[in-house]
Each structure stands twice: as structure tokens, then as C-alpha cells.
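Catalogue entry: protein
Contents: sequence, C-alpha cells
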Amino acid sequence: MTTSLPAPLIDNLQYCNFSEKIFRELRAGGVDAIHVTIAYHESFREMVLNLEQWNRWFERFPDLLLRGTQASDVRRAQESGRTAVFFGFQNPSPIEDDIGLIEIVHQLGVRFMQLTYNNQSLLACGAYEEEDSGLTRFGRQAVAEMNRVGLVVDMSHSGERSTLEAIDASSRPIAITHANPDWWHPALRNFSDEVLRALTARDGMLGFSLYPHHLKDGSDCTLESYCAMIAEAANRYGAEHLGIGSDLCQDQPDSIVEWMRVGRWSKKIDYGEGSADNPGFPPMPAWFRDNRDWGNIRAGLAQVGFSDLEVAGLMGGNWLRFYEESFGPAQTS
């Protein structure tokens, strides 16, 4: 494997309405790897149908995409001018109530799994519940099994207590793939300084979100404000623990927001991070419309004082290191 390649560009969370257009924009933007959501509320069988769709895309666009399951696939994508695609769940629903399915989904190529999506799950408590009871008995065993096989614990939609307990319970570093600090913008889905210090003290990773509901001033958030927030986070937690998880939902119809927030659990519309007046997808900031705009973020990070080496880490090098340490089975002595 070539060792002289530059640090990759990795976006560690996208949920676009994927198409040839978006695949070509990924290449135009120089994106070497993405982590894509293949389950929100799906059952195991429904999740497999999403895998089938990705297999068809890999077959149709072999010059643009490759299936990623290990860190070396990022370098393989760089060498061949393609984008490596890694799979993840935003909800543990595909494992149902069967701990054995954790190993099965890892064997199918899944590399990230959130323990909750806003609500209480069988594993932990979500950020939108009034009371956070922490990890369940099943949740603690699930974390141990995820550690064993190399399925990353993701707490992006979880409550504070549950997240702190997951950090403590996990024998391997965990991730918050797409969220921001609540000291910058106090959204329910953004995290406290206490959580982020605990996460990074255990070598976990935080991916900064670009979803407007997570941004100070929403769609009007400036690039300067966003990059200054990352600079302050680097001062607090160390730049080596930080990356981007854009949460880009490009070209999705507003009906998908209903699936994301409601699934099958409610008869009512749960506006979640949106509002009753505008329940659909908010406009992206002008400086990040799609995957061709990554250069704006790179330039913005340099402008707030990051070194070239730090920018390379924030744009993907840190995620690559995390992949290298996280995707394989746990080492046994």
C-alpha cells in the first residue's frame, strides 16, 4: 500500500438521496470516504434491502465508488480516484432484540451503530426523552459485543447520561459522528462540555455537523462562526479527536424527515429539531451546499489558525486513524 498519499477527505455521516449526480459531486469535491446511514427505523430485513440497493450502485458505478469495510479501503479509494462507502445505523432497530445480530451486521459490512435515535431504545435513552435512565442491561452487553467484533458505538442522538455511561462502559473509543457542542448552539442534539471532555479523554471522536438545526444561526450560520467553534473545541479537547460528520441530506424529499423523526412509533408528527411552521429540511448554509464545497471548510479552518497538519487531520486524517483502530476485532492478550 502506498504510504505517500496525502491525508484523505472523509465525511463521517451523510444521508443523501444518493444518485449518479451525487456520486459525481463526491468525486468533484475530492471526497475519499463517506459513512452513510442505511437504517433509521428499519427492521433487519428492511436494512438488507438497503444493502441490496448499495450493491447495485457499486455494480453500476465501479469507477466512482467502492465498498468500504476496513481502513485500508480509504487508501484504496484514494489510489483509484473513487469514494469508499462505509455503512452505519442511526438506530439499533435492525438488531431487534437479538445480540447475535451484532456480529451478523458487522459481517455484512456495517461499521457504526447508534444506540438510540432520539427515543428510548432497548439499549439506551435518546436525547429527546424527559428522563435519561442510562444504558439498559441489554445495552451494556451490546456495547461489549460491539467492542468485540469492531462495530463502533455511536451516541449522536443519545441523552447525556446514556452517552457518559457508554463512554465508560466501552473498552474501545466511541464516536459522536454528527453533532456540535451545546456551548456554541444549545440544540437538544448538541452535547455538553462534560460529555465531550469524557469522550475525547478516552480517545473518542467528535464529528462536527453541518445540519442547520445544529448550527448557531441555522441556515444563516457563517463559515467564520463554524470554524471558530472548531478552533475552540480543539483548544478544549485536542484537534486530534475532531473531524466532520456533515449530516448532509441532499436531495431528500421532505417526506423523509417524517420517516427520520417518526418512523412507526407515533401517529403524530414529531417536529423534533424542526418547527411546526417548517417541518421539512432546512436550507444548507451558502458555503456548504453539497460535496463540491469542502474546499470552503478547508480554507476556513486555515483562516482561523489551524496548521496544515491539523487541517489535514480535521478533514479526514483523524477519522482514518480511528477507522484503523476500530473496525477490526478487539485484540486479545
User: Anything to note?
Assistant: Residues 26 and 291 are 5 Å apart (CA to CA). The chain has one domain: 10-326. The chain has a mean pLDDT of 95. The two ends are 28 Å apart (CA to CA).
